[in-house]
Each structure stands twice: as C-alpha cells, then as structure tokens.
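Summary of Year 1 activities. Much of the first year was spent building the evaluation harness for sequence design. The harness presents a backbone, in tokenized form, and records the residue chosen at every position. We chose the following record to illustrate the format because it has been used consistently in internal testing since the harness was completed.
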C-alpha cells in the first residue's frame, strides 16, 4: 500500500474504487505560416469562426452551470483577439499557433498572481484556449471514452469542461496532480457532492490502470492498493463521515449560536455570481468578501458603471442577505492587460489596491457609483483594502461622500447609511487600529497578507514557506489587538482570510471575540456546526491562554489538544 497526503483541502467525503487514469495527449499544432496578407486575413477569420463555434457550445453548457458564462467572456475577449491578431500579422503565425501562444500568455499572467483564488483562473483561460484550437482542428476531445464503471478519476489536471462532460454516476472521486482548492474543477466537484483532492503532487507516479484507491477528501489522505481489512475500515469511516456531512447540511440553515447563547455570523468569500448562488444554497449568513477584481481582469478595458452596477445588483438580489464588496484590489501581483503599471522592484509593496484607486479617482468613483446604486436593492457594505494611514481613510471617505452627493443631485436612489469599513492586513493598520476604528464602520482582518507582512515571509516562496503561518504569536496578538480596538470603538470585526475556515482555530478565534467568519462557501456548514458546539466563555479562557504563549509549537499543541487532530 502506498500513501499520499494533500495538505490543502476544501472538499469532503470518502471514495473507494478503481482508478480511471487520464493521460493528457497534447495535440500537434501545425507550423504552416501564412505567406501574404490575404492568407493572414483568412487565418484571423478562421479564429473568429472558432470563437463563434466555441461560444455556441459554451452557451448550452452555461445553461446547466454558470461557470461557463465566464468562459464565454474569455472566448469573446477583445484583448485576446488582439493578441491573436498581432501574432498572425506581426509574427506570421497561423491561427492555431497564434491562439495557443496568446492563451498561454494570458494564463501565465494569472499563474503569476499571489492571490490563490485569482491564480486558479488560469485553468479557465487554458480550457477556453483548448476548445478554440480543437474547433480550428475540427476535432472533439473525450478523455473519458473508456469510463464504463464507477471509478476514482486520476489526472495530471482537469479542466471545467472535462468535469462538466462526466457522467456523475460513474465518478466516485477526483484526484489531480495540479490545481488548487479554489479552482473551478474543485468548486464543480463540490457542487456535485463528489470528493475531490487537487494538487496531489506525485499521484501520477504511484497509480496505474487497475489500481484501487481509498481517499478521504477532508483529511487529505490517499491510499493506493490497500489490503481488504484497511478498505473495510475505511468503508465504516465513510458511513460516519456521510452522516456527519448530512448533519452539517441539514443544520446549515440554523443560526450560529454557541451553547451559552453567543451569536456570530458565518459568511462566504466569493468572486462571481456562481459563487454567490453556492453561498445562498449552503445558507451562508451573507458574503463577507466579494472580490471585484474579476470584473476588471476578465475585461479588455475598465468596466463601465452600468456593467458593474448590473453585476452588483444581481449579486445582492440573488444572495438575499448582507454582502461586503471589496473595492478594486488590483496592482502588485494582479495586472490588467489594458493598464500599464510602471516597473516596480517589489510590486506587492507598491502601487496597488486603495493606493491605485486614490491615484486614479475616476476609476474609483465609477466603481463606487455602481456599488452605491446597487445598495438600493439589498444590504451592502463597502470595504477598502490595504489601508495604512488615516490620510488614506479620510481621502477615501471624502470621495465616497462626493459620489453620494452626485447621485443625490440627479435623484438616483442609494443607501445613504451604507457602512464603510476596511481590511486590516498590514502591521501599520494593526498598530493604528484604534485610530482607524474611530472613522470606520467595521473591520475585516485579511490574515493572508497580515501573516506574510508581519512575518516578512512571502507565502509563495517555497524557501520560507515554513515560516508562513498565522499561528505565530505575533500574528495572533495582531488579530487580538484589532478585535479589541474594534470592540472598544463599538464596531464589528470579521475575518476573510483562509484562517477563518480552519476548524482547528475556530475555538481560538471565537474566544478572541471575532464577530464574523468569512470563507469559501463550501466550508461554511462545517464551521457553523463547530461553533454551535462551543461555549463562548470557555473559548475566551482558552484564547487568553493561547495568545500568551511564546512559541508556535506550544500554540499548535494547544490547538491540537483542543481540536483532537493534528494542526
């Protein structure tokens, strides 16, 4: 028996069955080149025809899964077409090779992002690119023609369209060597209720056709060719897990109140309308982080006020609950094809987020007008990212007031009392939390950036990856300070970093006084259940003890003992 562990998980469920191994076959792309302008025009027309054919097939797929609505936008993206056209006319490439190169360039842009959620969108671009090339080659791809019996799918990678084409009755689980928990394949697997483990490095080396796999998606455990007794024990474990997950689902609609009557909110982090529908279906209390970057990154220009308003209005209406919209957090690792950022030695510490918005108030005001107009149709809050000074806060609030006056002057309705808060994600914001609390309506702690800035450890740098943990005393004490200062000023404090979804840390965060936990929608039922089973006063004592510890090893041991599992 061979064992493989996956550290980053977002799925749940246990699968036992034979392997269906997917081997990626890369299509050959012709090297033939157009010889004159007429042939170049014919190549561009070939690409345009492939776009229309791809959009037609994606439209039918989008009727069943709205993930593919985003794929339609990618296929029709003007910037992508311009890149293809440049390669045809400027480099003398044929349409297939030009499209393949342009798609790879856009995919690399997403892969270079620091934000995990945004980085996973590279797979969506790649998916569309493969469909375009397949159309130009007049071929169809079916990776699962040989799938005849219920199996665990094992592949180097899977694309959303691969997953959509599967017969759910023949899929026991997914395991891929590449990808992350925020990929659309992972999200689609969750929507289908299928256990999935992505980013299982080395899985292709230890399985073969005919292998049998036992996988626990929640624990991140994979066993290849176990003996009969081991498999039988896992079957019993599978039944227990299924009963537990059913309990989470049945109780997801209940309010999150501890045993001693302390109420908290469990929100979802989202990036598009499909994520919002998932959050609503899982009875999340609302949305604690709506990332608006996609509206900008998936466009060939800055989106208009009307385009943004339509998205925000649909989002808050579909959710039916409170939604926190983070204003544009672009720059650093997140680039736009239509905006030229100046070269920066360290872009993560450069012109990004609120700094960029204040540098370009016309872009900022366009988004604010759209958000304020949408606030007439549901409960919205505005959240400002990467604030480090009161000057930035005051300038931002001044612009918001200016936009309100402009809307009032033309009798456009909006929520005049819309709350405005900020993400606390830098040491500067932590130190001055008391000052910020006087002018802000709420705080949301972004533990992903807070951790790397506090520890001076790049979370994407494997050389210092071992240092990146929110369990260091310095990070936990920063979290405590922000919560304490917020409560002292009478404002709510939430958390929208990945730390909020960690069941092992739920008791600690509850005890520190966190008011709102925000995470991937799929994690909300389990966190709700965990919090309902806790005693707030007991958690307060536990948190006081933990934050006084001086070593991360002691903190991990305390959480392990409290949770009953490895931290």
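For this record, the design step produced the sequence shown next.
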């Amino acid at each position: 028996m061979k064992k493989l562990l996956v550290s980053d998980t977002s799925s749940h469920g246990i699968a036992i069955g034979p392997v269906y191994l997917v081997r990626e076959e890369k299509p050959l792309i012709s090297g033939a080149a157009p010889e004159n302008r007429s042939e170049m025009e014919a190549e561009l027309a070939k690409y345009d025809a492939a776009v229309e054919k791809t959009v037609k097939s994606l439209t039918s797929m989008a009727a069943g899964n709205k993930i593919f609505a985003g794929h339609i936008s990618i296929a029709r993206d003007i910037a992508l077409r311009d890149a293809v056209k440049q390669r045809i006319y400027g480099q003398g490439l044929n349409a297939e090779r030009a499209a393949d190169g342009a798609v790879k360039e856009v995919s690399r842009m997403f892969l270079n992002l620091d934000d995990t959620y945004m980085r996973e969108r590279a797979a969506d671009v790649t998916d569309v690119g493969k469909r375009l090339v397949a159309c130009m080659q007049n071929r169809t791809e079916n990776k699962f023609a040989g799938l005849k019996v219920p199996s665990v799918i094992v592949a180097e990678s899977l694309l959303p369209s691969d997953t959509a084409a599967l017969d759910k009755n023949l899929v026991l689980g997914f395991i891929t060597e590449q990808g992350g928990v925020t990929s659309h394949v992972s999200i689609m697997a969750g929507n289908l209720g299928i256990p999935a483990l992505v980013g299982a490095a080395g899985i292709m080396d230890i399985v073969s056709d005919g292998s049998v796999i036992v996988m626990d998606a929640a624990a991140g455990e994979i066993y290849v060719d176990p003996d009969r007794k081991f498999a039988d024990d896992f079957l019993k474990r599978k039944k227990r897990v299924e009963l537990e997950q059913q309990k989470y689902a049945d109780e997801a609609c209940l309010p999150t109140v501890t045993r001693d009557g302390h109420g908290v909110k469990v929100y979802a982090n989202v990036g598009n309308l499909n994520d919002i529908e998932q959050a609503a279906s899982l009875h999340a209390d609302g949305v604690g982080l709506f990332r608006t970057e996609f509206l900008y990154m998936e466009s060939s220009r800055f989106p208009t006020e009307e385009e943004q308003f339509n998205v925000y209005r649909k989002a808050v209406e579909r959710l039916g609950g409170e939604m926190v919209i983070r204003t544009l957090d672009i720059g650093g690792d997140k680039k736009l094809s239509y905006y030229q950022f100046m070269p920066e030695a360290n872009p993560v510490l450069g012109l990004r987020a609120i700094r960029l918005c204040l540098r370009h108030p016309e872009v900022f005001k366009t988004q604010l007008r759209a958000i304020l107009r949408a606030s007439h149709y549901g409960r919205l809050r505005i959240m400002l990212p990467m604030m480090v000074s009161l000057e930035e806060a005051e300038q931002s609030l001044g612009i918001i007031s200016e936009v309100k006056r402009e809307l009032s002057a033309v009798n456009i309705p909006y929520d005049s009392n819309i709350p405005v808060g900020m993400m606390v994600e830098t040491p500067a914001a932590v130190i001055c939390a008391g000052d910020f609390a006087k002018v802000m309506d709420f705080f949301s702690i972004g533990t992903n950036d807070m951790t790397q800035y506090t520890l001076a450890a790049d979370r994407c740098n494997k050389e210092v990856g071992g240092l990146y943990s929110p369990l260091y005393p310095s990070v936990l004490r920063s979290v405590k300070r922000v919560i304490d200062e917020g409560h002292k000023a009478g404002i709510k404090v939430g958390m929208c970093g990945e730390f909020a979804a960690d069941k092992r840390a739920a008791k600690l965060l509850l005890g520190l006084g966190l008011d709102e936990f925000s995470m991937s929608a799929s994690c909300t039922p389990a966190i709700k259940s965990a919090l309902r089973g806790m005693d707030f006063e007991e958690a307060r004592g536990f948190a006081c003890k933990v934050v006084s510890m001086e070593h991360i090893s002691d903190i991990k041991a305390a959480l392990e003992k409290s949770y009953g599992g490895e931290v």
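The first strand starts at residue 2 and ends at 5. Quantitative recovery figures across the full test set are reported in Table 2.
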